[in-house]
Every structure is written in C-alpha cells, then in structure tokens.
Amino acid sequence: MPFVMEKGIMMITLLLLSLFFKSTQEHDALHCEPQNLTINSSGQMILLTWEDKPSCSALHDVLIYELEVFIEDKKEYNDEVAVTPDQIESTHSWNWTSYLALECASHSVRLSSRYKNHKSRWKQNLTLPVLKTSENPEVYPKDREFKVGSNVTFCCVVPEGEFFENLRLTGYPREKMNPIPIGNRTYALTVHLNQSPKDSCTQVKCTTNTSENGACADIGYPPDVSDLKCETEDLESVICHWKEERDTDLPIKTEYQLLGSLCTKEPNGGCSQKVQVDVGCRNWTFTAQNKFGKVELSDTADLTKRVHMFPPKEVTVSTLNARNVSLEWRWTKQQYNHLNIKCQINISNGENTIIEKFGVGLKFAVLNDLIPDWTYNVTVRCGTTQHFWIWSNYSTSVNFQTKGDVPDALDVWMQMKDNQIIITWKIPLANQSHGHIRAYEVTWTNTTERERRNRTKVVLNNHSLALSLDTAEEYIVTVTARNINGSSSPSTITIPSLNPDIIRVNTSWIIGSGGGFNLSWSASPTASCGYIVDWCPTLGQCIVEWKKVPPNDTKTSIFSKNFKGGLRYSLSVYACTQGAPVLLERREGYVSEENNPEATSLTARNLKISSYTFTVKAQTAVGECGAAVTTYILNSLTDYYLIKVVFISLAFVFGLLSFITTLCYRHWTCIKQRVYPTIPKPVLTSQGEHRCLSRHMDHCHHSEADIVDVLELHLGAGAPINKYASQEKMPFVFAQPPKGYHIQPLKKCTPPCLTLTTTAIPSPSGLQSSPLRSVFPNLSYNLIIERGDKQSNSGPELQEGTSLEKRSGGFQPQVHTETFSVNQEEEDAESPMSCVSTYILLPQSPSR
Question: Mind listing the domains of the chain with CATH numbers?
C-alpha cells in the first residue's frame, strides 16, 4: 500500500513537470521573434539579415521564418526560411532579386516566425529608400549590361506635374512597346532583348508632355566558344584551340584563362601555356569571360599522342636531273629529330600528285619519274607516324625545272590511199617532246631486203609522209623525232601487202551518239599488242585519226574535236600484232544526222554564176538509195535587175500622173476660172408654147460680194433637157437668189421666138463691176435668129444700149429684152420642155 502511494505520487510529479515544461516551451514559442533586422541592396537584389531572440534557444524543433515583399504597398513575393535548432542564436540572411530597379518604386519587407502552431506577429516592415525624382523623367536601370535573350523591365519615373506619354527602345518595333503603370508616377516596360545593337548601346527613352530623357542599355552576347581541343606543337607547352561562332561588330573585351591562369589569344587562334608534357591523360580547363557572361570548357587528352608539328623550313632542291630530284629541309624544334615522321610531298605540274615518305627525324626525299624539261611546284607537310594526330601546315613552295631529255617515242599509224601509203604520227605534246622538236626522220625498208634502207627528213610543221611503195610487198617503216638532246626511240610500223587474195571485210552501219561513236567488236587471238581503231570521213581528202586500245578491251568510245554532224565517217578496227596490223571490222555512220526526214526542200546560198548539178539521196540505216539528179544554170542577175528597175520607174511615173490627174479633176472648175474665166451665158426664155432653150453656165464659187451678174433658170414639167430630168411640178433651180436681190418675172415666150433678158446688177458695194460688165460695158444683147431661109448671124448682134441711170436709191440696172427665132433643126435638136415664169435676180432697194 505505501509502495502504491509512492508510485502514484511520482507519476503525478512527472505529469506536473511535463505540463510545466510544455507550458514553458509554449511560452518561449510565443516570445520567439526576429530581432536586429537590417536591409541592404545591390543592384536589383534585396539583402535581409536578422537574429533570434534569446527565448528561441529553448526551442527543440525547426523554426520557420516567413517573409513578404511589397512593391508600392502591393504584395509581390513571399518566402520561408527554415532554421534548425543548431542554427538558433546565429545570424540569418535572405536575398531576393526584383524584376524592377529599386529606384523605380518603394520595396518593403516584413518578417514573422512560426513554430509548430504558434505564429508571431509581423515585425519591422523595412522599406528601402527611393531616390527623389529630378525635374526631368528618369529611366532605370542605368549603366547596366544585359545579355541578348533575356527579359528586362525598364521603368520611367515621371516628375510631378507632368504627364507620361511613351517609353520605348530604339531599334525595336513601336507596336510592341506597351508600358503599364505601377504607381502614381512610375511606368514599366518589359522587353525581350533579341538583338545586339549596331551602335555602342541601345537607347531607352521616356517622353512626357514637356520633356524627354533616357538611359543607355548595353546589350550583348557572352563568349560563344565551343569545341575545345588541346595539343602540343613543341613537346614543351600545351596550346588549346576553340571555335568562336559569333562575330559581332562591337569590340567586346574577352578574358581567357587556361588552367586557371590568364593567357593571351595567339594570332593562330589558340591559347598556350608552358607545361610538362608527360605520358598520360590530363584534364585541360579553359574559361572565356566578358561583361555579358562566362563560359567554361574542358578537354581530356594525352599530349604525347597529340603532336601538331610545325611545317618544314627551308625546303630546297639539292640534286636536279632530267627525271628525278632530291629535296632537303630542316626542323625548328630539336625534339622532332627523335620522332617517327611521315611527310606528304605535293607535286604540281598542271595536275597535283602526292607522294609520302617515312623516317625518323625525316629531313630529305627523292622524287622519281619526273617529266624532263618540265616545271614543277613542290610543298611539304609532315606529322607523327605513331599516334598520328594532324598534318602540319604546308611549307613554303619551291619551284624547279627538270633537265631536258630525248623525246618520247612517237605514236605512228598508216593510211592506205590508192597506190600510196601515208605514214602519219601524232605531234608530241609538251610533256612528250622534252625540249623543242627540230625535225622528224622516216626510214623504210622492204621486209625481204632489210639491209637496204631508205631515209628522209620531215620538217617540223609536217607530221605525215606519203610513200609510193610496191603494194605487193610488205614494208617496215620507222619514225623518230629529234630535239637538242638527241633522237627519240624509234617507232616502227609494218605496212601489209595488198594481196588480192586477202578476204575483204564487210562494212556495217553504226549510229553515233553523244557527239561520238560507241564501238565494240569481237576479240581476236591475233591481237597480241591490243587494237587500233582509226576513222576518217568516207568521202574526200582527210587526215586519218586513230586510237590504241589495250589487249583486254574490245570496246571503246570515239570522240574527236574534228567530228561534224551530217558527215559520214568510216571506222576501221585493226588487230595489233608483232607484224602488220590486221583489219578486223569496218563501220560507217554519222555522228549526228543533220537533214530533217520530213523536209522536202533545201536552199543553197552564196553560189557563183555557173552550172550546177544537184543530187538528192535518201539516207537509211542500211545506206543510200533513191538518187535524183537535176542540173541548173545560174545566170547573171543584171537583166533581172534592169527589168526590175524599169518596172519600178514606170509604176512610179504612172502613180504620179494618176495623182496629178485626180487632183486636177477635183479642182478643174477653179483651175478653169483662174486660167480663162467663162463669160456668163444668157437665160433664154421661149414664148408661145413655153419652150425654152437651156444653156449651161460653168461658174466658180466666189464670195457674196463677187457675185454680180446672176442668171437663173426655172424649169417646169416636161421632157429632160441636157440629160437632166425634171419631175412633175418640181422646178429645176440652178441657184438661189443671194441676199439683197429679188426675183422679177419675165413675160412668157412662144415658139419660134425666144426672148433673152439680161439684167445688169451692180456690185453691192457699188465699187466693183461684174466680169461681164468689165468686158462689155453698158451693153445689151440683141440676138436675132431667123427661121427658114433666113441666114442667122454667126454671133449675136451687139447694140449699144442705154447707159445706167443714177438714182437716189443707188444704181438701177438697165434691162434689155431681145427676140430671136430658132429654126426647126435646132428646136428638134434640143429636147423641149415647158416654160414657167423665169426670173432674173434684181437687187432690193436699200430701204429693205
């Protein structure tokens, strides 16, 4: 019983102690707060430091500090900092970088602690000081470097009393510039920097209603280096190379480090440092840094396996011959004398040829099989044989010319024409003559009389010789070329005899393609030294061309700069033997056919005066057929041209006369009036049966003032007169009365008497008389025509009439009426027509 009571007392005591410690810990948690808060800034970064209150030391679990950041009293960011029990009573720090420059707006931070379920109050709301604005708008951040590809926020602080208008960057599109307000006087613009400026910096400009100001943003790229390769050139140092992709127009200073030490970029683009070159791999680190960023590269290599040799120095020709030379050079590094080296020698003589030489410390090489009297250019590069890494650069080139030698053996062939054998050879090329060719020598002998040789020299410009030989015999012909160094090796060809018993080969057809001929034939066991293919135009004189084919080939392609389309060629295939060549096959064909098969005519131009015979044949795959022959005589063109000139002249004269005739016909009235004006005819009025005699008066158009004496004839119904037909009840009027004149009726007339009434009308101006009056002044007509046996006068009888009387109203015309008779013949000659009242134009009185 006492034991039980004692145990209960102990449990109660422990429980009370536990409650005490728990209440004490909770009390300490309630009083655990930050103290000694400080706030600082660096650029756009906020740095906050603080300490724990002493009451926090009693905590045995993680303590959490909560932080909140405000920009212009607007919560922008929140964060937490965990403090373990072993970190309590130490100084704590926290930093945060704002997207805004701290000068743009006020930034404040507040802090509280949280332990389990207990949280303290917010303590000490710290605010960074904001610079006062000036009289002009200010742009932030200032004097900062920005990397291309980053997002940057610029702000403009507007002075009091001014209104914000615009915030922009030079070189960026205006439509993408959308500033937003973040305070009463602050506007922010976030821009993605996607380009490097062409000038030193990019201007950021802020505009208000009264002023403009800005800042300079330095935008660029960090070093763009990659692909680091480290090697050794002298076995005493390491040199590292890299690729630098981006090349900007702005000079940006870049600092390079190799193995942690500064190094200077060498002209060849590398960075070197003295090191101990040992066998084994090593890590080589390289750093490139500028104001926009830093890049670090590394490479792992065994430098003994990465030897990049320097090029050979002072390459010279020590021995010079016709077909070989010796080259020598030296090394600038003594270590190379102990290396296994291989060198490539690049020999250029119009074409490049590379040969390789090997040796320890290799310093010389012999070049063989060169062309005599030929110019060469040689360069050398080398590398290590074992663990080859890379070739050195080529040495400086050396030029030399080999010594001359005798020409190479000529390429000789033959051509059989009628009873002649033409020996021909190809002109030696420059790399075959080995010096200037002076002459050729041809010798020939009968195979049965070899001791008897014929010899002749051929001048340089010729490369063929026609020989008149006995075609029944076989001959051996030798040709040599000679230069200053001597004669070439003899080229020999055997001329076969033209034995009529030899079987002739048939000629087959071949079709050209691609500007040449593709030729193939059956192999011949007699072709011990190969085959010869020659070709020549089938008709006319020609110089044969040929090509030699190796023994193992039975096909070849034939091309020549002398080939012409539309010209038929004969091709022959020979077997090359120890004796005379043997003809195997013969072909004929065209490189390309030129007459269109659908064509039915051809024009021959630039022919001379002569007689020509034209033959037209059809060409088919098996040959020619259907020849048609015609003959033409081309005469002089003199007669043709003469006739042509005569006809052209006659045509011109006819055209000119036609033009003049047409012109005169259209203006004949005026021409007649100008040359000999007509006298006006009188108006004849018949009496009795109203029969009138019509007289036609030609006249020319004049102005109204010129028309003085006017005659007018009115015709009634009746028969046509002078081919003019009058319709019934339609008067035929020759002229209308001009202004200022009236019509006076005349008395009717009856046959056989006719009355002629003439009225003299003065000119309206009174100053100019009519043409009639100018010829016969103040006259009246008395025309008397008698019928029957009476003989009429040959012309009208002119009687002097009464002169014009002057009146107060102007001149009045004096009218005379004369009567004359007309005989029956004249009356029958004229077609009768009934008369109506005939009028004479009289001037109106001035009062009207």
Answer: 2-127 (2.60.40.10), 138-220 (2.60.40.10), 225-305 (2.60.40.10), 313-401 (2.60.40.10), 412-495 (2.60.40.10), 503-596+607-635 (2.60.40.10), 678-843 (no CATH)
